[in-house]
């Protein structure tokens, strides 16, 4: 996940894997099993220290007007420990637990976290550090012109405390004999840990990194095997726009394809990759509406009735009259826009990757209904 609501979730061959952690996990992490398989006893000194820190932290928080308030209860509080600029409009942040003694939850390449920002704004960003390092997470966010979430992230300073939810996985990194990775610009964030993992496991892979120009492409210096066979840094101003035939030239039947980048790049690859190749993608914008029909939503049993046209989402229509309606991913996986469904037959198109099951709810951002169906929403 890479900026404003920006992700396309799992490809056509796998459901996302849900990763659950209770709030208690963060406050009272269970120590890992020892090398010899024995369960370790919790370190009482560290637990005591953690409890003391939890009491003191609210008194010492560096909250300043204009900066995020302390993380709400239930979210994992993390401190911005380091801010770097790997490209002119990209902020890369190292996030450490706000309380000592807390071990961050396990993650794998492809996982993202929900970042809780000022005003309760929630955005998803891919983890792009080292999964083996549980002492901290790293995210990188490109500033989008007019983007609320990316703007708030770029205002964060070292020492600020924010809340995290997750990690969750909507872009599963599956075992394959061979990989083709394609990243466009900030789409490098979920792909980078995958390339590193494939490189470390001695898997055969091809990695193509595209972008406007070299200076706009973050983490070029961190690519494993760069300069060697199979890793291509391919800025448009030197090579022209990426050519799909060229990208797929060496595709073998056992190759899994992973792509994260702009929608046209993903769509072009999706339509050309043969059905037998596992295909996984993550995008920067809401998916296009496929097979949309006009339907109605009523806001409460006696509220106004709104028409949702074929080519618009219910979220866009509802937000015109209720601009405060919350949303986050706009791609059907975070659950933020789900509202109660009082009556009507929905065509549910969301695919929750965590949190509560859908139940009698309707995801405004992607779900729809049959022609002229009226859904009564608990709004
Ligand atoms: S905004 Fe995330 S599911 Fe709708």
TrEMBL record:
Transmembrane segments: none annotated. It comes from the Bacteria. Its cofactor is FAD. One of its GO terms (molecular function) is oxidoreductase activity. InterPro entries: 2Fe-2S_ferredoxin-like_sf, 2Fe-2S_ferredoxin-type, 2Fe2S_fd_BS, Beta-grasp_dom_sf, Cbr1-like_FAD-bd_dom, FAD-bd_FR_type, FNR_nucleotide-bd, MRET. CDD domains: fer2 (cd00207), PDR_like (cd06185). Residues 73-174 form the FAD-binding FR-type domain. Residues 9-21 have a biased composition (Basic and acidic residues). Keywords: 2Fe-2S, Flavoprotein, Iron, Iron-sulfur, Metal-binding, Oxidoreductase. This is Ferredoxin-NADP reductase. PANTHER family: CARNITINE MONOOXYGENASE REDUCTASE SUBUNIT (PTHR47354:SF1), NADH OXIDOREDUCTASE HCR (PTHR47354). Residues 1-37 are annotated as: Disordered. Residues 295-379 form the 2Fe-2S ferredoxin-type domain.
């Amino acid at each position: 996940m890479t900026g404003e609501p920006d992700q396309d979730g799992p490809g056509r061959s796998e459901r996302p894997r849900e990763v659950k952690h209770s709030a208690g996990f963060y406050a009272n992490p269970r120590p890992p099993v020892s090398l010899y398989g024995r369960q370790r006893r919790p370190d009482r000194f560290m637990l005591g220290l953690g409890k003391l820190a939890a009491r003191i932290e609210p008194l010492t928080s560096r909250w300043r007007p204009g900066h995020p308030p302390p993380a709400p209860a239930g979210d994992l509080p993390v401190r911005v420990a380091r801010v770097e600029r790997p490209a002119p409009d990209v902020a890369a942040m190292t996030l450490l637990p706000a309380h000592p003694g807390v071990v961050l939850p396990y993650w794998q390449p492809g996982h993202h976290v929900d970042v809780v920002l000022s005003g309760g704004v929630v955005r998803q960003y891919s983890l792009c550090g080292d999964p083996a390092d549980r002492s901290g997470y790293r995210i990188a966010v490109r500033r989008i012109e007019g983007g609320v979430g990316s703007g708030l992230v770029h205002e964060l300073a070292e020492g600020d405390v924010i809340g995290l939810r997750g990690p969750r996985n909507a872009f599963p990194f599956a075992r394959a004999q061979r990989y083709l990775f394609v990243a466009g610009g900030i789409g490098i964030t979920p792909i980078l840990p995958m390339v590193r993992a494939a490189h470390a496991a001695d898997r055969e892979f091809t990695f193509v990194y595209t972008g406007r120009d070299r200076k706009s492409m973050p983490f070029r210096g961190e690519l494993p095997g760069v300069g060697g066979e199979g890793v291509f840094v391919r800025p448009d101003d030197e090579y022209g726009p990426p050519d799909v035939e060229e990208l797929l030239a060496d595709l073998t039947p056992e190759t899994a394809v992973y792509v994260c980048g702009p929608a046209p790049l993903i769509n072009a690859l999706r339509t050309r990759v043969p059905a037998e190749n596992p295909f996984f993608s993550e995008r920067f914008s809401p998916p296009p509406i496929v097979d949309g029909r006009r339907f109605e939503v009523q806001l409460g049993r006696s509220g106004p009735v709104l028409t949702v046209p074929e080519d618009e989402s219910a979220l866009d229509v509802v937000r015109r009259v209720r601009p405060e309606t919350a949303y986050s991913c706009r791609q059907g996986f975070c659950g933020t826009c789900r509202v109660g469904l009082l009556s009507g037959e929905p065509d549910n198109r969301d695919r929750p990757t965590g949190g509560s099951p859908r139940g009698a709810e309707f995801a405004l951002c992607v779900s729809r209904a049959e022609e002229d169906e009226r859904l009564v929403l608990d709004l």
